[in-house]
Design a protein that fits this description.
Blueprint lengths: L38 H19 L4 E2 L2 E2 L1 E4 L4 E4 L2 E3 L4 H22 L2 H5 L2 H18 L2 H10 L3 H26 L1 H9 L6 H21 L2 H6 L2 H8 L5 E5 L1 H4 L19 H4 L20 H12 L7 E5 H4 L9 H22 L4 E6 L6 E4 L2 E12 L5 E7 L5 E2 L5 E3 L4 E11 L7 E9 L5 E9 L7
Antiparallel strand pairs: 1-2, 3-4, 4-5, 6-7, 8-10, 9-10, 10-14, 11-13, 11-15, 12-14, 15-16
Helix pairs in contact: 1-4, 2-15, 4-6, 6-7, 6-8
């Protein structure tokens, strides 16, 4: 039920704008930022296009004959820079994740949200590819806003077709990280009916990318991503931020006006160029992604007015308040020490990885067979060849008094794994309380040898 215009609403209305992407009445406010060329945009383009090229090329690159990066979830194998890891390598995964998390804390404490503005895929793809294509089809921000009022036209339809094609490329590239570029190429040449699950993943990813960059856009940073909300905890007054020099800029006023005013001429250049729609002069805000567009815009105005650059600049809250900046501080030292320890531990674990992984598995079926004076026990041993060449693994026992039924050696190619079922015959008197042990030896004859102690289950009345 709608409320007549001449009657006050029973619901409280917010005072002012709640989000930069919402008008006062709650409708979507489309942001059409003006591009501000400058030194920081040039550097961001170099970094961003390099990251785009890396993302597109990485699934096609190989290191030591293996994909540079392959997350093979069905096979539970994860390949990175020529090294293949399995889910059983818990220390590697744990150390890596901890190093990433604490590294984010360190990076934020030092450089603020530099990741958001320079490395985040959302910012890189949106600001350096999708928005430039939009400007190519729809023109300046003023022309884009005119199309917002008048409704879709041919140029906007063509733009969205190009967006959909780009989303299709990104969706297939994303899928290549999980199935490999070769398999993806085979699927693309075949019918989707041959691989419905993979096709559905690609289609959903394409739709999500198109929805994000064609419609949702900067709201991902302000509504979905939690990093901006964490900044109040991760940042301190010494962290590097994009900030406005209030002492130098205020009071604002036009050039030549009396009484004397600050350097800010209230031209709004920093506002109309901001891709998240904020006014940097209002101080540090959650929506700021440190893209530095406001710096380039303000520097251009200062150059025109023959005034020093840096009214808006990379600084810290302490420096902007006239305090000295301290790069070395307890928080930074603590984060750096933890990250260094985790990285050293990770390198040590990875560098000391053995060329094969041997695992004792639980017995399937009857654990033992009582044959009178001897007990027949079944074991299962899984061997994973991590070497880059085929290996032949012989399995023997190093326990006197026990007999191992003949078992064929395991011949495994690179990154292959197989399970051998062992039949061990043990004297009945070896079992104390229904328990005994056996030493299983796996040897590839080329320097790898591993010995494991396997528990044996037998009759309770076996030993003394």
């Amino acid at each position: 039920m709608s409320t007549p215009a001449d009657q006050p609403s029973l619901l409280p209305r917010p005072k002012g704008r709640v989000l930069p992407t919402l008008d006062d009445d709650g409708n979507r406010r489309w942001l059409r930022p003006r591009l501000s060329p400058g030194r920081f945009l040039t550097r961001r383009r170099a970094v961003g296009y390099a990251l785009m090229a890396l993302f597109l090329a990485l699934p096609h690159l190989t290191v030591a004959g293996k994909p540079a990066m392959l997350l093979d979830i069905p096979a539970r194998r994860f390949t990175l820079l020529g090294l293949t890891f399995t889910p059983t390598e818990t220390p590697v995964l744990m150390l890596f994740l901890l190093a990433v998390f604490v590294g984010v804390f360190l990076l934020t404490a030092l450089f603020g949200r530099v990741w958001c503005g320079w490395g985040c895929p959302q910012t890189v793809w949106l600001e350096l590819l999708f928005r430039p294509i939009e400007r190519l089809f729809e023109g300046s921000p003023q022309e884009q806003r005119r199309r917002d009022r008048e409704g879709p036209d041919v140029r906007r339809v063509l733009k969205n077709v190009v967006f959909l094609l780009l989303a299709f490329v990104l969706g297939n590239t994303f899928l290549a990280y999980f199935v490999g570029a070769e398999q993806l190429g085979h699927w693309m040449r075949g019918s989707p009916a041959e691989h419905p699950t993979a096709f559905a993943v690609m289609a959903l990813t394409t739709a999500a990318v198109f929805f994000d960059f064609a419609w949702f856009r900067e709201q991902t940073c302000m509504v979905v991503c939690p990093y901006g909300r964490f900044q109040s905890v991760l940042l301190d007054r010494q962290s590097l931020v994009v900030g406005y020099d209030h002492a130098r800029g205020e009071p604002r006023g036009k050039v030549g006006k009396a009484p004397p005013v600050g350097d800010c001429v209230d031209c709004q250049a920093c506002v109309i160029t901001c891709p998240t729609g904020i006014d940097i002069r209002d101080g540090l805000q959650m929506e700021c992604v440190h893209c530095t567009q406001c710096i380039d815009a303000c520097d251009a105005i200062m150059d025109r007015l023959k005034r020093p650059r840096g009214l808006i600049r990379y600084s810290s809250q302490a420096e902007l308040a006239g305090e000295p900046r301290r790069l070395v501080r307890p928080r930074v030292l603590a984060y750096a020490a933890v990250v260094t320890g985790l990285v050293v531990a990770l390198v040590a674990v990875v560098s000391t990885r053995r060329p094969a992984e041997v695992t004792l598995l639980r017995t399937i079926g009857v654990p033992f067979v009582d044959r009178g004076e001897r007990v027949e026990v079944h074991l299962r041993v899984k061997v994973h060849n991590r070497a880059d060449a085929p290996r032949v693994y012989a399995i023997t026992l190093a326990e006197p008094g026990l007999t191992l039924a003949p078992v064929a050696p395991l011949t495994l190619g690179p990154d292959e794994a197989a399970t051998a079922v062992l039949t061990v015959l043990a004297p009945r008197e070896r079992f104390a309380g229904g328990r005994a042990t056996a030493r299983v030896v796996v040897d590839d004859g080329q320097g790898f040898r591993q010995e494991l102690t396997a528990p044996l289950v037998g009759p309770l009345g076996g030993g003394p």
